[in-house]
Write a structure and sequence with these properties.
It is built from two helices and seven strands. The protein is mainly beta. The chain has a four-stranded antiparallel beta sheet with strand order 3-2-5-6, with no helix packed on it.
């Protein structure tokens, strides 16, 4: 492919991923960050098992999931091109449900 064909949509496009977060409760906040702490995708009040899409920028990303009634989840994830289901367990926060 030459430079002119590339400009008209025939060339390589940035690879993206679509991740479905299976096990995430409605109302959770999800943020996806690259290695430089730039936000790649996010939602403030998700539906159950939300789906986020972002452009791949390098190797691993940092995912943070927050919900008032559950423990904060923060983990690294190496995304792949295409669609993926990522299982997530949100354990109840014992201090939120029973602050004694």
């Amino acid at each position: 492919i030459g430079c002119y064909e590339f400009d008209h949509g025939y060339g390589n496009h940035p690879a993206s991923t679509t991740v479905t977060f299976v096990g995430v409760n409605a109302g959770s906040e999800i943020r996806v960050y690259d290695a430089s702490a730039n936000e790649l995708a996010g939602v403030e009040s998700s539906v159950t098992n939300p789906e986020l899409t972002w452009v791949l920028t390098g190797a691993a990303v940092r995912i943070v999931i927050v919900h008032l009634d559950y423990k904060i989840k923060e983990f690294s994830y190496t995304p792949v091109v295409g669609s993926v289901s990522l299982p997530v367990q949100q354990e109840p926060d014992k201090w939120r449900s029973n602050p004694a």
